[in-house]
Amino acid sequence: MNHSYDSKLLFAAFLGALLLVPCALAAMDSDYCLMCHGDADMVNAELLIVPTTFDTTAHAVLGCVVCHDTIGDDHPSGVSELSRATCLDCHDTLGQEYLMTDHANYAICGDCHNPHEARAMKAMAGYDMNDKCIRCHDSQTMVDVHKVWLPQADLHIAKLPCITCHTGSEGYEIVLNIVVRQDDRFFSRFELPEYQILKEISGDAGILSLIDTNGDNFIALTELRRFNRNPAYRNLRLEGTLVPSDVSHDLKTLDNRYDCTFCHISGPKSLQTSFLAIPNRDGGYQRVTVEQGAVLDALYGTPDFYMVGTTRSASMNILGLLIISAGLVMPIGHGLLRFLTRKNRQH
Amino acid sequence: MAENTKIYLQPTPVRIWHWLNAFGIVTLTVSGAQIRFPEYISLLGSYKSAIYLHNTAGFVVAISFTLWFFYYVFIARSMANLYVPKVEDLKTGLLRQAKFYFLTYFLGWENPHHPTPRNKFNPMQKSAYLAIMFVLMPLVSLTGIFMTNVEPLRGVIVMMGGMKILMSVHFLLACCLIAFLPTHVYLTTLGHTPMEHIKTMWTGWEENGNDVPDHKENGTVPSH
Question: Residue B57 is part of which domain span?
């Protein structure tokens, strides 16, 4: 009975919506808008929206007219002032959180997030999260500011998204990326590649097949090892970064971030969760789950991802303990015999 | 003939280097342990303190090692003579010394080696110090320098196999050096008195009661 009542209510709401939105626009979808706004020859740069990028945003699902609802069927010759929904219409909680920060005095949502390009955090590589921050916060300046108290400030700034420390998110996860050697020089740097480069390397099998050899959409430790040891992939490596697991816009730095052991500590529950970020054709990323604890593997799991105190290897610890123990053999064994034969040396 | 003599065995630069090195290596061991096992060890306060102390002690030991190297090679000019085993050492010396440590010492026999300023180390010591001072110390210092400069040296680190390889090499080399410490300290107690060799490294002079003089030296009477 209740179900029937809900259905009627929904239907009434739908009719109401149809009345509010002009009939011609009801049929208009994003593709229709992008026929002009996705073509650089039709609109100027300010109005240009890259369709392949927009399609990967959560906003694309809503469609253009949800935010730009005053547009008429006489567009573009009609109303020149296009209505825009405000970000807080949907993102109220995040927005209120942000408005309480000092950042809100200097930048509004759109200064950091282009609504036609904004991707969910899980559709990002990790390193690209800083694109927004460096518009105002120059990397070298940030290194100088941080090195006053932070050991290896240059390494931290280069390898971590700012929001890993500067948000209230409690949880972290590791995102691994495939990086590519830039040229044939011996000490050439490895950089995050674009989709097309990895696609050419992987061929028709797809980029994920470089590592996920059995095609189960899950990265096992054995697959990571095989990838790292494969001489055919000597120009590819895995790099890792630490990203917040929850989205937060309070942009505060919790006191525990100043305690190195917040990140640099090991334990059964520490940093077990990791993902591989695979670039998509549209410029976004797809996350693939990696076996729990794989980044802790001694050498070939993730050879370039190492955090002192955290990713230490149990097998290395055992080997180290054996070596140190061997150093005790002489004092203990010889010392015991020395004690037992002490009378022989009394002369 | 038995004599009571003193021999100036450890010159001042060597003694300063030795104790600086000893203090540095103990500091590196404790701070390194805290850096690797922060949830179990917090002897040096915060994690950051342990890292700064480890880095500082590492650089001090690395510089000290460099000075030591140049002192022996260019000033004392006795590096090869003291540290590189001779053919005779390898042929018979090693076996003779091992026989003393592991058999005849317990029977109360004299040490077959008598240290002099020009021949301080017995064949086993030479071999051990050769490995420690020419392989372990340079490598552990070098890997440490790489690890404190990861960002500028990333290309080289990647070429070497990555951070985990570098870190594992540094850790295992450090374990080898730590393993040597108890053996080293124990062997210093094998003089005529347990403190004899330790005093020598503090004062420079080795006292000796009744050892046979080394015919190669000028009237000095060495001990173990």
Answer: 5-84+124-208
B128 token code pair: 């051990």
Return residues 93-152 of B near A (CB < 8 Å): 101-102, 105-108, 148, 150-152
Q: Is the dihedral of CA A48, A51, A54, A60 positive or negative?
A: positive
> What pTM was computed for the model?
0.81
Domain count, chain B: 1
Residues 156-175 of B with CB under 8 A from A: 156, 158-159, 161-165, 167-168, 171-172, 175
In a domain, B148, yes or no: yes
How far from A23 is each of A11, A27, B10, CA to CA, in Å?
Answer: 17, 7, 99
The answer as to whether A50 is a domain residue is yes
Domain with A74 in it: 2-85
Domain harbouring B35, CATH code:
1.20.950.20
ipTM: 0.86
Is A234 inside any structural domain? yes
Asked if A139 contacts A117 with a C-beta cutoff of 8 angstroms, the reply is no
Can you tell me which residue has the tokens 């290395």? Answer: A316
For residue A105, being part of any structural domain is answered with no
pLDDT digits (tens, 9 = 90+) for A102-153: 999 999 998 988 889 888 888 888 888 898 899 999 999 999 999 999 999 9
Mean pLDDT for B183-192 is 90
